[in-house]
Every structure is written in C-alpha cells, then in structure tokens.
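seq:
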Amino acid sequence: MAKEKAPSMQFYGREFYSDENVVIMTLEQQGAYMRLLWNCWQEGSIPSEAAKLRAICGNDPRFEGDIWPGLKDLFVPREDGRLIHPKVESLRKDRNEYVGKCSDGGKRSAEKRWGKVAVSDLTQDLRISDKSPVTLQSPISKETPVIPFPTKPQTTDPLAAEFERWIAEYPNPVKVDTAMRSWLTLIGTGEITTDTLADVHAGLQRWRDSAEWARDDGKYIPAPATFLTGNEKQSGRMWKDHPPASAEAKISRRAGKKSSAGVDPNAEWSPDWQETA
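struct:
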C-alpha cells in the first residue's frame, strides 16, 4: 500500500501576500504559483519541462511567455533535474519531525502503561490520520527561525526604502502594511521610479494643501493604499491630480510672494519683471 500523502500544507497568508515577489505578481502568476507549490508538497518536486508545468497550471497558453518567467527563480533544481521549493521543503521537514515526535511519544506512553513486551504490537499501526487535530508546523522555539515565504532574498531597492519617508508625510497613515504592498506594486509596474518619485511626493503635498483634505478635520483623507492604487470606488494614482487648494494654503502662498510695495499678504502679487529699480 502506498504511503498516504499529507492532506494539507501549512500556509502563512500574511508572509505570502506581503512578500515582495508575490506582491508584484499578476493574479494569473499567483494562481499558477499556488498550484506549483501544492504539487511540490504532494509529489516532492515538480518537473522542469515547460510543457509539463503548463499542464499542471491548466494549459494556459500564456504560461511560457507571461507566467513562468515571473516564477522560475523561486524554484531550485534538484540533483535529478526536477524542481523543488525551499519553503515547502522546510514545511515538510517540520511535519516529518512532528510526526516522529508523536510516534515516539506514543511508544513511550504505551511502554509506560503496558510494559515493553507489547510495545511493537501496540504501535505498529501508529500514524496521524486525516482527522487528527495536529498542526503540520512544529512548535516555534528560539532555536527554530521562521523562514519567510518564499525564501528568495529580499531586495534592498532604495525605491522600496523610500516608502518610509513618504508614509511619514502622509496625514492619515492607517493600514501601513497594505500601503507598503501598494507601493511595491507600483514599483513593479514601473509607475514609481527614480524619475517619478519627486512627482509622487509633490502630488501628496498638493493634496495635503487641498480644500478637500482640509474639510471636517481631515475626514475625507483616504487611506494611503487608496491614494496609491485605489479601491472599488477610487482609481488611485492620486499624486497625478491637481485638487483646488484650501484657503489656508492660498494665504500661505501669498505670504511668500512680494507685492510691488514689498511683502504684503493682502496685496496683489506682481512678478519681478514688473518691478522698477
């Protein structure tokens, strides 16, 4: 009888969906990624041939051109040429160690209760069934580090680090983790670059000075993720907008301008070329 395969795999949603590699994936890539991870768990590995991988992912005609290029670096080749995933292998090791501990614990309990004579008879069928209330992850201790999902090293992209400065300027910094994912998404799509970064900061400043955000003590300031990538009601990319300035912002701007008679916040401003020596 073939050995029963594990019916479930431990899944860390927070680690998975906050990982930069997953954030920049398309929905099609995420779906294919989950299928390939599951096959790695069930079969121990996946084939390296593109045609077989495409079949696992439902024979999507876009697989080789649009889907697999964004996933291939997350898998590593085994000695026989098939592909494995480091995080899946870590989860498998944790599960096997846990099963081993359960088996050893059952043997010790039987020995203590019934004596060593009948231990082999009592424990020869010991295994974890589908209905066993056992988590597949071994208990985390100080000696057991949590491995991020996936295990590809994180980038130190200065554009990603620039998010901290941007969010510090945002007047309603709620759901910062979601905003960070939106920021990384825009980096992945090429909308936030070293060339456009100044525009993103300038656009935020325009909204900080806007009449809409000044209303009712900032009641209408959206969450930063909405500002960046939008939601079901707003399209995002709000840094490109030029909203009307608030009365306070207009007064502040006039205070820094010169009238023909000197600095006067209430005077009509005239440019330098109109002034006489």
